[in-house]
Amino acid sequence: MNLPNKLTLSRILMIPIFILLLSYPFEWGIWDIGYSELPVAHFIAALIFIIASTTDWVDGYIARKHNLVTNLGKFLDPLADKLLVSAALILLIEMGYAPAWVVIIIISREFAVTGLRLVAAGEGIVLAAGSMGKIKTATQMIAIAILLLHNFPFSYFGLPIGIIMLYIALFFTVLSGIDYFIKNWHVMRDSK
């Protein structure tokens, strides 16, 4: 197993720890962060999320730069991204930091694009992520990280930047989904 695939696998292995930190009421203390409070367990979970999100960029960069792209990596990388983002968004609903309807739209888009990729794969076509998809991923990761940090550092100013970023992520999620289907509709039209 090459380094990019190990990084992707490490991202998948971080997800249960991340979930546990946000699901179990650890009594490690709470920090006052302006107009809000941040439990230490949530801070650690946010750091894990940020590290895991960073490995997404690093493993792709290494794989492309050193020609280490593998079928295992093509399978694991998007799976790891979807598992991490979905887990975070669902937990943010439970914590009261994300509206369920926004999360449903974001996760539905991921299922739809995955379905299109499966149809394409059945036809022997590989559909690469476009620049809109990369913007979508970046805005989602930023929004989730800020929300996991209970809007820190913007909480000192009373600015709801986390939820604003989530709506920006929603916009790019929908836009990139539409763009992806328009560019690749031939796969559905021409499938046997």
Structural features, described:
- Its EC number is 2.7.8.5.
- Its main location: membrane.
- It is an enzyme of class 2 (transferase).
- This is CDP-diacylglycerol--glycerol-3-phosphate 3-phosphatidyltransferase.
- With 192 residues, this protein is mainly α.
- It has a single domain (3-190), classed as CDP-alcohol phosphotransferase transmembrane (TM) domain (Four Helix Bundle (Hemerythrin (Met), subunit A), Up-down Bundle), CATH 1.20.120.
- Helices cover 74% and strands 3% of the residues.
- It has helices spanning 3-23, 40-65, 71-95, 100-122, 131-148, 161-190, and strands at residues 30-32, 37-39.
- It has a two-stranded antiparallel ribbon with strand order 1-2.
- Strand 1 (30-32) and strand 2 (37-39) form a beta hairpin.
- Helix 2 packs antiparallel against helix 3 and helix 3 packs antiparallel against helix 4.
SSE map:
Blueprint: H1 3-23, E1 30-32, E2 37-39, H2 40-65, H3 71-95, H4 100-122, H5 131-148, H6 161-190
Mean pLDDT over the full residue set: 91
Overall geometry: globular
Radius of gyration: 18 Å
Strand order of the largest sheet: 1-2
**How many individual helices?**
6
Q: How far apart lie the N and C ends? A: 35 Å
Structural class designation = mainly alpha
CATH class: Mainly Alpha
CATH T-level topology:
Four Helix Bundle (Hemerythrin (Met), subunit A)
Kindly report the name of the CATH homologous superfamily.
Answer: CDP-alcohol phosphotransferase transmembrane (TM) domain
Order of helices and strands, N to C? HEEHHHHH
Number of strands: 2
